[in-house]
Each structure stands twice: as C-alpha cells, then as structure tokens.
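Appendix B. Chain record.
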Amino acid sequence: MKRIACIVMAVVILMSAVGCNSTEKEENPHQPKNYSKEKDLKILAVGNSFFSTSEVIETFKKILIENGKTDIEVDAIFTTSVKSLYSNTYVDGSGTLPEHIKLREGYYDILVLSTIYTDDDVSIISDLLERFKEIDTDIILFPADNEYVNGVRNAVGYYMLNCANWQGYLNRLRFRYNFTSELLSINDRYMHTTPVGGLAGACLLYARMFDEAPNAESLKTQFITNYYDLFPGETDMEKEESFKIIVNETLNYLKDHDEIYE
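Structure tokens predicted for this chain:
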C-alpha cells in the first residue's frame, strides 16, 4: 500500500510540475490574435496626419495584395483623438461618413487605432470595448511616432489590448540599425513620418496580424530609388539589405515586445 501511495503521490507531483490539471490552461490575455485563417476581414484604420504623410495604410493595402490577401477590405478615416472618434461616432452624431456608420453598425472585424494623446483617450477605449462586445470587433493599437507613450502603455495594460507598436518599431530602426531621422521623419513642426516610416508601420501591422513577415519585394525598387541617398549602405546590395531589415525585423521586434509596451 505504501508503494502504491508513493506512486500516486509521485504522479500528482509530476502533474503539478508540468501544469496538468482537470481544466484547460487559461489563455494568456496578452497573446496576440492570429488572423491568418480569417476570411473576408473588414478593417477600419483610424489615424491623423501621420497616416497621410507616411501613406501607411496605402502601403498596407499593397502588401496585403502582394501576399495574396485580396479578400481583406481596409477603410481609413482621420480624427484628432480617440475621444473625438468616439464622440463623432456614438455621442453627438456628427460622424456621418460611411465609415462612422459602418463602425456603429458592427461592420468591421478590426479597428486599427492610433491617436492616443491624453488620459481621456485611454479612458474612452473602455467605452469602445463595451460597445464592441456586442458586435465582435477587435482593437489593435497602432501608435504613431508622436503619441502619448504612457497612455498607450496604460491602454495595453488596462485592457489587455493587442498592439502593433509603430512608434517603438521606428525607434528600433533608428537606434539599432542607424536609420536616420531624415529617412523616417519629415523635418516639419511635428516630425511627421515619411513613406519609408509608413512602410515600416505597414510591415509591422501585417506581421502582428498574421504572425509572419510580409513579402514586400514589389515595393523595394520604388522605396530604394526614391530614398537612395538616405538608405543605409554604400552599395545597391547594402541598401537592399536595409530594405529587408525594415520588412523582416518586424517579427523579431514583436517577439521582444509581445507582452509589454516599450
């Protein structure tokens, strides 16, 4: 009997050590959702002038097509803040664009959300999430280069939100790979993001959604030609390698920052 008891005890200890129990393991609330198997996704991207100067959503659409995801629909609207988006869409009714109406009606599967600038913007996300429970719309935070760092960090922490940290990824390219400010930012009052920075954001958003680096080969010549003198590298081959870094470093960055905003 003692021998049997010892065996039973050993099994219990072993099961505890490997995390076995009678219930399924809880999902990590920060675990990013993979949309690879989703069909006919409808996405609304919300941003401001950083979307315009960087052409990030236009580039994202091109990348989707190049990677065979032609069934995905992407709309974009511009706003000054999350609070403004919420007010226009749900409160005062001033949002009469088709995209506002479709957002209210639950047309979109994903809201790609920029424009977090104040604590009010962070707070209002809870109201968005409450409305989205009924219509099954996901939020992916996509902070632009000038957004409120602590606000985005708090939004990720408070609401366990998925985040494609465009701002953070641009900083990685700057500080780890020596991409210059001239290549990624426009020399204006707000340091708006350039189309190369938009390419980085588009690749990061794709990698976040589908857990793979995109194929962006069709865009390589265009970007290197337009920004030849600014791309890191002395030779054509070195500049092509710099382009590949923008595209492929996305997965490494996301792996480093899956559970924290930094």
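Further analysis of this model is presented in Appendix C.
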